[in-house]
Amino acid sequence: MRLKQVGERVLSFAAYLVFGVVAGAIGTVGHRARLELWGVDLWLGIGVALLGVLLVAVGLRMYLEERAWVLAYAIGVVGAVFILSMSGAEHSVLVPASASGFGVGEIWTFGSAIAAFSPVIWPDVRGAKREAAARKG
Question: Among 26, 74, 98, 107, whose Cα sits 20 to 30 Å from the Cα of 4?
């Protein structure tokens, strides 16, 4: 690889990493949003945040040829969730632990990692289709 190509790849990896950090930060802030409807709390934020992370990761995986860019996005998401889950100034937290042991904070912490990394590990279907088409033609 030439130096120019290496530089482009490093900058692209960094750009997708920053994109993942932004997505993880937005999801971390918004995952606790809820709507009270007839006395019942509907946790809309967790669903929207997980769906957003998953759909972006799936879209990147389907559109781009390489897994490296989706991996950079996933690392950024998990890194942002990790950093923002720690207690900050005056011991305030964005992702509080549940008293029962498993709540919305835990669902976001583990669910965001699963949603971001799942498209990285699934098999390349397009490559198999190309190989089959090459054998026929």
Answer: 74
Count Cβ atoms within 10 A of the Cβ of residue 30 and give its class: 0-12 exposed, 13-18 middle, 19 or more buried.
middle
Contact at 8 Å (CB) between 44 and 35?
A: yes
Residue with tokens 């090459």: 134
CA distance 53 to 42: 20
Sign of CA dihedral 96, 97, 99, 104: positive
* CA gap 99, 116 in Å, rounded: 26
The predicted model scores a pTM of: 0.83
pLDDT in tens, 42-77: 888 888 999 999 999 998 888 887 888 999 999 999
pLDDT tens for each residue of 76-103? 999 998 988 887 777 667 666 666 777 7
